[in-house]
Amino acid sequence: MSAHDQSTSEQEQRVVELLKDSKVAMLTYLDPSGKLLSKPMATQDVDFDGTLYFIAERGSDKVQALVADSRVNVSYSNNGSWVSVAGTASVVNDETKLKELWSSFTDSWLEGGPENPENVLVEVTPDSAEYWSAPGGSTIISLTNLVKAKLTGSRIEGDNEQVDLR
């Protein structure tokens, strides 16, 4: 493995780590008129390759829009880090996986449990991601670094990478 491959692998691992630390995402997709819409979604799982899983209702406007145009962006913000994932969404009918990912939190939002045929998985296969991570990784440390930068006239140096996930 070359140094570049190792670096890419480390960047991919960093993206997955940041995604696993964040539970709520903003899913952006195109509605039938071509307008961008963003909806909050609870991330149910993140595979080692960055594949994201959400649970939604088959008849919802967002699922119907994803069937028509599968291009999406999923964004996260958590503890001084931000991740933007560009990819393709697909509606998956997998009751076993749905049961595995179902939780009491999901029960609060969707009716009928994983056995309800109206509840489906939305699987996002990532093409690329970009992440930003502030030094220190927490909101308090990030704010402290911001104040320090303002007082000293320096610039906050964080971690920012674009990662090809194909």
Q: Which structural class fits the helix and strand makeup?
A: alpha+beta
Mean pLDDT over the full residue set = 85
| Major pleated sheet | 8 strands, antiparallel
Q: How many domains?
A: 1
Please name the fourth-level CATH homologous superfamily.
Electron Transport, Fmn-binding Protein, Chain A
- CATH topology, which one? Pnp Oxidase, Chain A
Distance between the termini: 18 Å
CATH architecture: Roll
Rg computed from alpha carbons, rounded to a whole number of angstroms: 18 Å
> What is the H-and-E element order?
HEEEEHEEHHEHE
Contiguous runs where pLDDT drops below 50 for at least 5 residues:
1-6, 138-143
Percentage of β-strand residues: 35-45%
Residues in helix, % = 25-40%
Task: Based on the model shown, name its key terms.
Split_barrel_FMN-bd; Pnp Oxidase, Chain A; 5 helices; 166 residues; Pyridoxamine 5'-phosphate oxidase family protein; disordered N terminus; Stress-Dev_Protein; 8-stranded antiparallel sheet; YdaG_split_barrel_FMN-bd; alpha+beta
Can you walk me through this structure?
The protein is of the alpha+beta class and 166 residues long. It has a single domain (3-164), classed as Roll (Pnp Oxidase, Chain A). The protein is built from five helices and eight strands; from the N terminus they run H-E-E-E-E-H-E-E-H-H-E-H-E. Strands 1, 2, 3, 4, 5, 6, 7 and 8 form an eight-stranded antiparallel beta sheet that branches. The longest helix is centred in the N-terminal third of the chain and has 18 residues, at 3-20. The radius of gyration is 18 Å and the shape is globular. Pfam families: Pyrid_ox_like. It comes from Nocardioides kribbensis. This is Pyridoxamine 5'-phosphate oxidase family protein. InterPro entries: Split_barrel_FMN-bd, Stress-Dev_Protein, YdaG_split_barrel_FMN-bd.
